[in-house]
Amino acid sequence: MTPASQKPSARVFCIANQKGGVGKTTTAINLSAALAMHGQRVLLIDLDPQGNATMGSGIDKNQAEINLYQVLIGEARIAEACMRSESGGYDVLPSNRELSGAEIDLVGMDNREMQLKQALTQVADAYDFILIDCPPTLSLLTLNGLASADGVIIPMQCEYFALEGLSDLVNTIKRIYRNLNTSLELIGLLRVMFDRRVTLQQQVSDQLVSHFGDKVFKTVIPRNVRLAEAPSHGMPGVVYDKSSRGAKAYLQFGEELIRRVGGRVRRRAA
Ligand code: ATP
Ligand code: MG
Fold first, then answer.
1. Whose CA is nearest to atom 17 of ligand 1?
2. Mean pLDDT (whole number) for 142-171
3. How many Cα atoms within 13 Å fall on the side-chain side of residue 78?
C-alpha cells in the first residue's frame, strides 16, 4: 500500500444548487457511499444546518456535540468532530442547527470565507474525495464551501425553469472564481429525479446537453422511491437497496466521476 504522505491531496467538490429540494443532499450521501464502494476514502461535510446529510448517513445530529460549527470558528479540529457513517463506509463532518450561529460568528472574523479551506488542510491527505453538501442559499457558509472546493457538481431536475436557475448558478461560480477561488471549476451537471416518460423533461435534458455538452454527466439519476425512503433508515440508498434503479445509477455516477477526474476505480472487498 502507498503511504498516505505519497498520495495526492483529496479532490474537494461542492454539491450545490441555489434551488431548494433539487436532490443535493441525496446526491451527496449516495455519491459518498458509491465512491466508498469503489474503494475511495471519502469525507462528507454537512454544510447545511438542517443536518440532513448527517442524519441520512446514519448519524444522530443531536449527538454530534463537536461538529462543523466548532471547526469553522476554530474551536475544534476536524479529526475531533468527524464521525463514521458505518452504513455508508465514509467519514462525516456532522452539522446541526448550531451551525446557523456560525453565520453570525464568522462575520466578525478575518478571512471569514476561508475558514473551511484552512481547516481542510488538516485532512487533505487523508481522503481521496471530500464532498460538501451545500445549503440552498448563497450564504457565508456556502461561500466557505465554494472557496474550499476544486469544483462544483450541480444536481438538477429537468424542469421548465431549470435552465434559467442554472445560468444564475453558473454566474455565481464565475464570480467566486474571480474573487475567491481561481481553482474552482464546474465539474458537471447531474440530471436527477429524471422521468423519461415526461416529454418536457426529455426536452430540457436535450437542451442541457446541446448547451453544456460534455459538462453534462452521462449518468442520469431516475426518480426512485427507494432513494427517498433510505434516509429514514439512516442509510444511503445505494446501501439500503443495492438492486434499485436509483442505487445502480448512483453507483454508476461514482464510477463516471472517478474516471472524469482521472482516478482509478478500486473494488472494496465485500
Ligand atoms: P435542500 O435544498 O432543502 O437542501 P436538497 O437539494 O438537498 O434540498 P434533497 O433533500 O436531496 O434535496 O431531496 C429533496 C426530496 O426529494 C427529498 O425528499 C428526497 O428524498 C427526494 N429525492 C431526491 N432525489 C430523489 C430521487 N432520485 N428519486 C426520488 N426522490 C428523490
Ligand atoms: Mg439538502
1. 228
2. 91
3. 21
